[in-house]
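sry for the spam today, last one i promise. struct tokens for design, 225 residues
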């Protein structure tokens, strides 16, 4: 078992809080400790510092709310993370399943000058290797008509637009099923226990049976037949 960390950077805290909100959940101390692999006392101390410095506030129910200053800092780090992923995959040729972990190391080192150059190279309207727009995050996907695979109705022709990226083993699993951004699929049925049966256009003779933990982490968009 890896040894538990006792600290994380200010940027890591803010980014993790931002990401939890993006996923439609309420950020609380216990979730931060789990996601950052730090001790609860470390989270408590960090939240006090971040609150003192004007990055967030902690509501009476324990929910953590980013201020405008906190959101700006978090979104800037998220942008650098996505740019790092694109640099690693599109320029250096790293496999998309490994990009998230490597970008976690690089995101803090990207300067404003390099950030501007990367934006110029990749374009502001592009997406990370896992399908999230450089700007706007998951809400932007929602506005573009994307839904989770668990929400998709059987019989509808779909395109995969985003794969949840925080678990390399999960990425390797879906990659082995040929499910990656851009894949064309069709849901055939959904059982009472929410198991979804689907086929990938590139491998039409192989049925996939995916449980809810997987289908909630894959985002799709309807396509023309």
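last one done:
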């Amino acid at each position: 078992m890896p040894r538990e960390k006792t600290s994380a950077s200010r940027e890591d805290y803010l980014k993790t809080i931002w990401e939890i909100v993006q996923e439609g959940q309420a950020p609380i101390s216990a979730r931060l400790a789990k996601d950052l692999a730090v001790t609860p006392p470390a989270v408590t101390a960090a939240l006090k510092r971040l609150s003192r410095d004007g990055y967030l506030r902690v509501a009476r129910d324990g929910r953590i709310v980013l201020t405008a200053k906190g959101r700006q800092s978090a979104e800037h780090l998220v942008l650098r993370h996505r740019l790092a992923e694109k640099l690693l995959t599109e320029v250096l040729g790293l496999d998309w399943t490994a990009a998230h972990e490597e970008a976690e190391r690089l995101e803090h080192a990207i300067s404003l000058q390099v950030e501007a150059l990367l934006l110029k190279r990749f374009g502001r309207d592009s997406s990370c290797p896992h399908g999230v727009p450089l700007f706007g995050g998951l809400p932007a996907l929602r506005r573009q008509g994307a839904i989770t695979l668990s929400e998709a109705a059987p019989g509808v022709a779909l395109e995969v637009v985003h794969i949840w990226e925080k678990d390399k083993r999960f990425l390797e699993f879906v990659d082995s099923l040929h499910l990656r951004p851009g894949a064309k699929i069709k849901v055939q049925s959904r059982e009472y226990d929410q198991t979804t049966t689907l086929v990938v256009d590139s491998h039409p003779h192989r049925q996939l049976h995916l449980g809810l933990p997987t289908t909630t982490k894959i985002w799709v968009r309807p396509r023309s037949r």
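Residues 76-137 form a domain with the Diphtheria Toxin Repressor; domain 2 fold (CATH 1.10.60.10). ok im logging off now
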